[in-house]
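Replication initiator protein RepSA
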Amino acid sequence: MTHTATPAGLEDPATLTDVLRLAGSTGFDRTRDQIRRTGGCADPIHLHGSTVTRDALTGQILHSYNTDTEPGGRLRIACGNRRASRCPSCAWTYAGDTYHLIRAGLVGDPAKGTPETVRDHPRVFATLTAPSFGPVHNRPGNRPCRCGTRHPEDAPELGTPLDPESYDYAGAVLWNNHASDLWRYFTIYLRREIARRAGLTQKAAREQSKVSFGKVAEYQKRGAVHFHAVIRFDGPEGPESPPPAWATLDLLTDAIRAAASRVVVDVPPAGDQPARTLRWGTQLDVRTIRAFGHGEEITEQAVASYLAKYATKAAETTGTVDRRIGNKEALALLGVPDHPARLITACLDLHALYPDRKLRDWAHMLGFRGHFSTKSRAYSTTLGALRQVRADYRAAQQRRSLGLPDPDDATEAITLTLAHWSYAGHGHTPGESWLAATIRRDIQLNRETAREELPALLELEGAIT
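Predicted structure tokens:
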């Protein structure tokens, strides 16, 4: 007797039943096409509506579309969520956009508004961390942890306190909560320290140079936020102009260290909580970014890839959840480990003492309420601009497939598109979820295969030419 293996993900009878229902439905091909167009989005938005494209002069209908012809009368579009824990497909797109945004500010990209000469500007990769809130289990080089154990890399106790009862959980979540303020003051002091080292007034320094940055936030295993940032010297007009002769790498590095040491944020006392003075941790790392990888670890490619990787992650990497938690009782139901559960509890307890800090709303983020990916205005292009390029490309593809005129071609007819959309829900049935996951894995495999084959193809092309 032979047994047929059940495809991965179909072990659940309800999912298998729904997959069979979906495969036997009359609209299966179109459903699969819609899911593929979203890239295998895990939680697509459903829309009802229609579009009509007319010749603006004659009123002739050139194309019309209505969701009434779709399976279930709905059109699926990607959710666009940046969190890998929510939607791996959309997070991959977000990471790709972040990569190109960071890379454009490192190597330049005229198509994205950043000249290639920016590669010659002084640039560093800086990491600013939180201070200690108590000793934790770690892997200090080749030495054993303070507990006497040599922890493997995936040990669950890494980052957790040696003594949870003496660990400053309140200080940890208040620090996370004010991390964005610490960064804001850091950028202010950085410009002041640059002017001081250049022997200029702050006004004169601003007239001769500009400091640009792109950064992401990352959670350490202990649940503390830290920031990774590309910091770059530009001329007064931004990346289009060269920095002055005095704007050197050494000056920038020294100014970063001095500015970080000056930043303080005072938190007033409240209830049983003492007054606190929040600062950056002493583990400040500043490394020069090299234009080409001659054995150096910190290259443009490595930095852009690293920042893009962490742009899609949040506090769930520490063991917490990626959605709001209303009360302490939910922690046990959600299976949150002890250390992040204590941090979340501290947020909930401190909310009444610091209501303006919205600690209860951001308890699942261990108090952090800032953006995970930010940049200064002049650093490079924007995520919005990158998304618009992608949308314009897809719209052009759609017009060509439908035989519609190009709006940028003056010889073609002018068209007018009227659209009406309404929200109709979100998500998948169990069978659709399995299909979306399968499609996403296929797309990812195809991308990885193409990436691996590209160097060989380029080598072959070079040999032929």
